Amino acid sequence: MNKSIKMKKVKLIIGIVVFTLVSIFLGYYLISQNQSTDMVYSFEKPILRDITLKTVATGKVKPRQEVNIKPQVSGVIEELYVKAGDLVRKGEKLAKVRLVPSQLNINNATSSVELARLRLRDAERELQRQKSQNDSQQDIKEASLRYEKAKADFDRNKALFEDGVIAASDFERVRIEFELQSAAYTNMKTIVGNNLLRFQNEVEIRNEELESAINNLQLLKEGASKNSKQVANIIKSTVDGMILDIPVEIGSSVVERNNFNEGTNVAVVADMNTLMFEGKVDESDVGKLGIGMPLVLTVGAIEDKSFAASLEFVSPKGVEEEGSVKFAIEASILNDSSVFLRAGYSASADIILAKKSQVLSLMERDVIFEGDSMFVELRTGDQTYEKIQVQTGLSDGIFIEVIQGIDSTKEVRNRKLM
Prior knowledge:
By secondary structure, the protein is of the alpha+beta class.
């Protein structure tokens, strides 16, 4: 038993020694191999290229003008004249609504018609009575007789006054009476004429009330009146454009638009010739934006195609989203007739913040940044270089402009080990 344990210990010690020797040998071999390998560097010359500094905004394409069409009356959709994708003109029919009025409203409208007829009859009857009185001219005749008598007295007393038969005070009394009767006669003729005109106007008013009541009743029953150019139960487009959506079907109930209800949306019409991009940018970039900046739009659904746009709005207020503040922007998309852009397309916009054309530049990774100073490693021999200071300019994160320190004939070490 003891002999067996001793043999196991000996084998274990031998194994440890062998493993240690092999490890030392492998370590020495690897170190010697690394020491015998030479470092090889590559060098590149700075070249002229365009450098563009830009930021990216994500958003969607939407029409500048998008209108929701709503009915003027409540009821049930009886007919649909258009479908999504159709082009329509202003005033073109979109749908027809079959009215379903309540019996209470019809009863009230019928009562209004009967009441208006009664008022019209009363007004016509009173007008006929006034015409009969006017034809007899009894009031005018009486006023005329009084005027003629006063005139005769005036003429007689005037002659007596001129002959000195009567006193001036007596003649003055007769003159005043004559003037009063003359004015009364003139006023009576005016009053009779005005009374007749007033009753004629009353008949016209009552007749208009009756027509209005009849039209209201017809509108409730049929959705249109005989004297109306507008058919209330026919829904028409209010703008030129394309039908984007018809959210109702034949048989759907719709509610009219009024002060207390927004109404049921029957169709969405938009002008697809004037599109805009609506997106958001991070607060770190919003201070660099300016109205009129060019944008390059990329639409995910359209490959190998970009669209030009122009920034026209930057929101003055940011909204916090997922821990960062975003600002809404809007840009006008330049019309491109070769491709049809659909409303709601997801898009990303490259906003060009600064751009320089054909400037001397190199890879930004080859520049050494030490505080506020920048350096590059300039080639001096086959595998030798020296560190010199340079002045840089615009950078897009990959390439950086070199303003001063080197020219296009110099070679700069590629700081990636070859």
